[in-house]
Amino acid sequence: MSNKRHPPPTVSDVEARVLLDRYKCAIPFHEVRTRFLGNIASPGIGESPIKVIEQLWGGKLPEFESIDAANELIGALVMGVWNRLTQHQERNSPFRLTRVHPAATREGLATQAQIRCQELDGFVEGLFGHNESIALPERAHHGLNALSKIRAMFAAVLDVAMDEMKPATDAAMETTIKLMREMTKNAETEVNAVVRSCTIARRQMLPSLLADKPTLH
Fold first, then answer.
1. What superkingdom does the record give (predicted)?
2. Are 147 and 191 in contact (CB under 8 A)?
């Protein structure tokens, strides 16, 4: 009989989401993903995965009934979600934002716009961590500026969708959905550009530009 140990099965994103809900994590899963990705990509002195996970609960892990319960959550987030996201440092494995299929209603537009804002906020939060400024390669610097503009457009959609005083015809909402699809593609392009350029810079020690943490509205 072989005594060879086999690696534990990888926890899926769905299972990780269930665990986050169980422990009342205030950060939605789609934002958790981008926070992790930003930290993985960060060219600065990144925090350990455990420290990043603690920040999901304000700096301290939730209370657990047992060591096994703690291992279950940490294993799901580190060995599952975090490790899968490290694959996106490679060009042949681009990152994708959470897929959303909104209805052509105010609620549908608001939901997608809010998710996108949270995802982009999470990416910036993970990239900068506790730093107000970090040195970024030139392409990442440009990508971050582009993401700030895209985020502002999603925020504008959210504001209009939630304001009942502003008119919104069915045709206009259908058009906005199509525009948000394009904005999502553009955001993914820039996120992947930031991740890839930071990865290459770390490996090759390329020159960097100082970037201030953007104030997102």
1. Bacteria
2. yes
Please check the confidence at residue 212 and state whether its pLDDT lies above 90.
no
Q: What angle do CA 121, 122, 123 make, to 5 degrees?
A: 95
> For residue 33, is pLDDT > 60?
yes
Q: Where are the domains of the chain?
A: 13-212
Strand partners, 212: 133
Structure tokens at 171: 């045709």
170-204 and 138-162 are packed helices; what angle lies between their axes, rounded to 10 degrees? 160
How much is the average pLDDT of 192-211?
A: 79
Q: What is the CATH number of domain 13-212?
A: 1.20.120
Local structure of residue 58 (DSSP, 8 states): T
| Tokens 């969708």 sit on residue | 161
Residue labelled with tokens 């550009």:
193
- Residue 67 Rama label (left phi>0; alpha psi -120 to 50; beta): alpha
What is the dihedral angle through the alpha carbons of 36, 41, 42, 47, rounded to the nearest 10 degrees? 40
- Give CA–CA dist 73/75, Å, rounded: 5
Length of the chain: 217
pLDDT tens by residue, 60-95: 999 999 999 999 999 999 999 999 999 999 989 999
Residue 118 sits at the vertex; the CA angle it makes with 112 and 120, to the nearest 5 degrees, is 105
pLDDT tens figures, 142-176: 999 999 999 999 999 999 999 988 888 889 999 99
